[in-house]
Amino acid sequence: MSMLTASVLVPVSGPSAAPAPKDTLVIVSEMGPNGLDTMVPTANDHSRMVTWHAYDRLVSHGEKTLPDGTISYDAKVMTPELAESWDISEDGLTYIFHLRKDATFHDGTKVTAKDVKWSFDRAIAAGGFPTIQMAAGSLVKPEQFSVVDDYTFKATFDQVNKLIMPDLAVPVPVIVNSELAKKHATAADPWAFDWVSRNDAGGGAFKVETWTPGQQTVFVRFDEWKSGPLPKLKKVVWRQIPSAGTRRALLEKGDVDMSVGLPPKDYAELAKDGKVKVIGVPVQNDLVFLDMNVKIPPFDNPKVREAISYALPYKEIFSSALYGRAKPMYDGDPSTPYEPTWPVPIKHGQDFEKAKKLLAEAGFPDGFKTTLSFDLSEATVREPSAILVQEALKKIGIDVSLEKVPGSNWFAQMASKKMPMVIAEFYGWLDYPDYHFFWTYYGGNNSVFNTANYVNPVLDKEIDTARFTSDPAVFKASMQKAVDIVMTELPRIPLYNRYADYAMQKNVEGFEYWFHTHPDFRQIYKN
């Protein structure tokens, strides 16, 4: 398989534009993949979107219907994908997966257990995000994985972990065509990260036909796919268009089938207008928050952090920046304990007098100067939110400068742990509160998402207990302690749980919400 060539851009506006055929879906978005390999630590979220469709995983999830009628994946039900079946030992430490014998990669090569082992070894070797994601399911060392025969793969574990199976269904432990990739490996790049970042080495339901970075990705159906029902769509065109206004206009004119990543204001107006379908789902295990770096004064002072929690303009952010397309995370019930789940709403709203009192008690009666940073690629929502925070904190004497970090630098800035305050987000692919804590608070990871730079060995112990126990009572007690710790220490202040919003033509059917929040082309069809 040769390197992907630049594509001819599919027109979506102008005199030549016309509705796409029934077997073709045209999606417009501001963002797109920065590469085609999910295991590269710098891969962005839209690289996961590519991987989801172009690669198989061993297992997947069932589906369920949400209260509003939207079809969603079911986090509690595991279903076959590349693995037809599996056996788990009584002690929960050995997993044996029986692979489909008719599955092939896109180049026709048969998929075997050696591809699975090589792929898992590769994800662990990648470092950064992929390695931590694998570790969430206790997939931590190559010695755990073995090839029993061509179609039988075995994984062994040192301890029971309820996240093992769901962690196999996320867009990291995907099955790569090992022989194809190894042909392009070098001494400096033994896992062929560079080549796979620019080429399709998968066996999923769709092949990447062309990829023009920053402009367009074209998928075509892989007619020999055996790991699920053959999709009804034969082609999907993912176009990147920077202007939200243009993306909305194209949808309203009927020139495209779906628009993702529009501002909340647009989704609110489109939903009210009713000419297109709008689906909004609260993202599972999601929290948009304000982090204060506890290693940078004065945020090392808990009373300063608490003071800021009383000054934040929660309601204004919800109405003016989100247009109600979110679930509030403030004004919780102060008379009840925090629930042993996540996220939980803070137990108050805005109270300037309380904020000023706490700031004075902390030794800052006249306030101080600091910086609030946000991801410029999320500026549609994050910039008005930051301005509202800036204005509110000024009322208690805190002079805030805004730092707009280019999206291409955002992960590096987070990893540096040098930003005093940030507005950021984390949503967990696995819908478990201990998973969210593992990614964002666990000191042993020093995760990029811990922009509060908060490390607490007592908290780490509770997170570990919750992760590895099989006793519901022990889990509940540990999560209760963990939630109490972070909501008392307040390195992170909850703001809201955002919606995943999608707008589409009324003839687009089969939409299914997934934890990664991207449309699943395998389910969608057009009437």
TrEMBL record:
A molecular function (GO) term: peptide transmembrane transporter activity
GO cellular component terms, A-Z: ATP-binding cassette (ABC) transporter complex; outer membrane-bounded periplasmic space
Compartment(s) where it occurs, according to its Swiss-Prot or TrEMBL record: Periplasm
Entry keyword annotation includes Chaperone: no
Keyword Transport attributed: yes
Listed Pfam families: SBP_bac_5 (PF00496)
Keywords linked to the UniProt accession: Signal, Transport
Residue stretches in coiled coil: none
InterPro entries per the UniProt record, alphabetical: Peptide/Ni-bd, SBP_5, SBP_5_dom
Biological process annotations from GO: peptide transport
Family that this chain belongs to: Belongs to the bacterial solute-binding protein 5 family.
Name used for this protein in its record: ABC transporter substrate-binding protein
Source organism (scientific name): Skermanella aerolata
Taxonomy of the source species: Bacteria, Pseudomonadati, Pseudomonadota, Alphaproteobacteria, Rhodospirillales
